[in-house]
Amino acid sequence: MTCYELVYFDFYFRAEPIRQCLAYGGIKYKDTRVTLSDWPALKKSPKIPYGTLPVLYISGKPLCESHTITRYVAEVTGLDGEGDLLEVARLDQIYELCREFQEATQPYFFALNGLNKEDPAKLKSEVFLPAVDKYFPKILSELQPNYIFGKGKISYVDLYWANIIEFYKRTARDVIEKYPQFMEHERLIKAVPKLQQYFATRPKCPF
């Protein structure tokens, strides 16, 4: 029997789509949450091969890089297109587009959470809004008529994007409300029956 341990900080951020994929698949795992005070020492240990989090241990073997882990657990839980190679590639294409948006807006995200000394209002204007204008129409064009990205069922891309919208709905609601399709998408993902227990019991995190 395969055993899983996910090591990350007590944040949603890069680990949340991984946790939700595992929850959707009904896969039990050890959810190890690292404190910021413990991180400097742990970062240098053999337990963290690349010196970054998250790390997913699969029966003791580490798998690094958040997007690699997300794709892996998506395949394990049937959230990746389930063997239809073209659908797998299509979802991966959308995932990369969503990931590019997240990376482009990261300075604004960090400023909102006090992780850099930049002015959030300035970065909203100079970083966030241009990224919205660039990426939202492209991502929106990939949304299916039933407000999900997967054809016929939800995918890991839906979980990933819903988490991004959930955060920015709280911090830049005036912008997100201009895209009601994404608001509906996030609402639908939060209502997925297989995720209800997870949402009801997950620890509350700032981001």
Supply the key terms.
Glutaredoxin; Glutathione S-transferase Yfyf (Class Pi), Chain A, domain 2; Thioredoxin-like_sf; 54% helix; 4-stranded mixed sheet; alpha+beta; 10 helices
In short:
This protein is of the alpha+beta class. Helices cover 54% and strands 9% of the residues. It has ten helices and four strands, in the order βαβαββαααααααα.
Highest-level CATH class of the largest domain: Mainly Alpha
H and E order: EHEHEEHHHHHHHH
Biggest β-sheet description: 4 strands, mixed
Class from helix and strand fractions: alpha+beta
CATH topology of the largest domain: Glutathione S-transferase Yfyf (Class Pi), Chain A, domain 2
Report the radius of gyration as a whole number of Å: 17 Å
Distance between the termini: 33 Å
**What CATH architecture of the largest domain do you see?**
Up-down Bundle
β-strand amount = 5-15%
Main β-sheet, spatial strand arrangement:
2-1-3-4
Shape: globular
- How many domains? 2
Query: Low-confidence segments, ≥5 residues, pLDDT <50?
Result: none
Number of strands: 4
Mean pLDDT: 95
Number of helical elements: 10
Q: Which percent range fits the helix content?
A: 40-55%
Enzyme class: transferase
GO molecular function: glutathione transferase activity
Domain GST N-terminal: 2-81
InterPro entries: Glutathione-S-Trfase_C-like, Glutathione-S-Trfase_C_sf, Glutathione_S-Trfase, Glutathione_S-Trfase_N, GST_C, GST_superfamily, Thioredoxin-like_sf
